[in-house]
Design goal:
251 residues; alpha/beta; Purple Acid Phosphatase, chain A, domain 2; five-stranded mixed sheet; 6 helices; 10 strands; 23% strand
């Protein structure tokens, strides 16, 4: 039987080490009772990328028993071990991804990964996004490979590619360029995290429009909004519907 829609639970910034345990339990209950088709987590899985935090993340994602696509965030590279941060920044993350991550196969949507992190940059702090030509080209190549597929194409990355409004400086270096090129290549929306505030807006660059969908956080690192995640529904007629799901104390 063909499904009439795909439901994705889009979560971000879990920050194992400073996770919000009640909100995590609430999310677990939603996954187990509602059985979404997939979970997309757009980075900051850990707080300091320690091995203990990665083990906790692995156990938690495995317990959800749902296909999950992971993206790394700026917090997911070693914080205390600078040698490892510069030489093998994703070694610990890749163990987690190999254990619980999958390439999603959905009836009504395609999800393309896009890494917006770098181990270091010429500004402080090193937390905001940086678009590199190599990583953008990899995402564009993935979009080109499926350009004839009519399903909506969702790009998953950690950092929002544009600021909250066009009157602000873009904290993601070369984010405007990435937004324009991804939109021109056929991307329908970008799923992201990082700012710990959920949003859903349509923006445009270089005469190409694209939707920006940001998830909140399931950590205690709150920035003006409580813990939350997004329920993203993609219908058979290519509509993308987003419902913000907010945690309230006590469930």
């Amino acid at each position: 039987m063909t499904r009439t829609a795909n439901r994705i639970f889009h979560v971000s910034d879990v920050h194992f080490g400073v996770e919000h345990r009640d909100a995590m339990a609430w999310f677990e209950e939603a996954v187990h009772s509602e059985r979404p088709d997939a979970i997309v987590c757009t980075g900051d899985l850990t707080q300091r990328a320690t091995r203990a935090q990665y083990r906790a993340a692995q156990d938690w994602f495995a317990s959800l028993e749902t296909p999950v696509m992971l993206q790394p965030g700026n917090h997911d590279m070693p914080y205390y071990n600078l040698w490892e941060r510069f030489r093998r920044p994703y070694a610990r993350y890749e163990v987690l991804e190999a254990a619980v991550g999958v390439e999603l196969s959905l009836d009504h949507a395609l999800v393309v990964p896009f890494d917006t992190n770098v181990p270091a940059q010429l500004r402080w702090p090193w937390s905001d996004g940086v678009v590199t030509r190599r990583k953008l080209d990899a995402a564009l190549a993935a979009l080109t490979a499926v350009q004839d597929d009519p399903r909506p194409k969702l790009v998953a990355c950690h950092h929002p590619l544009l600021p909250a409004d066009d009157n602000r400086k873009n904290p993601t270096i070369r984010g405007d360029m990435a937004f324009a090129e991804l939109a021109a290549a056929g991307a329908s929306a970008v799923l992201s995290g990082h700012v710990h505030l959920p949003f859903d807006m349509e923006r445009s660059r270089a005469n190409h429009a694209m939707r920006m969908i940001g998830a909140g956080t399931l950590s205690t690192r709150l920035r003006g909004a409580g813990p939350s995640f997004n329920e993203v529904t993609i219908t058979a007629d290519h509509r993308i519907e987003v419902t913000r799901r907010d945690f309230a104390s006590g469930g």
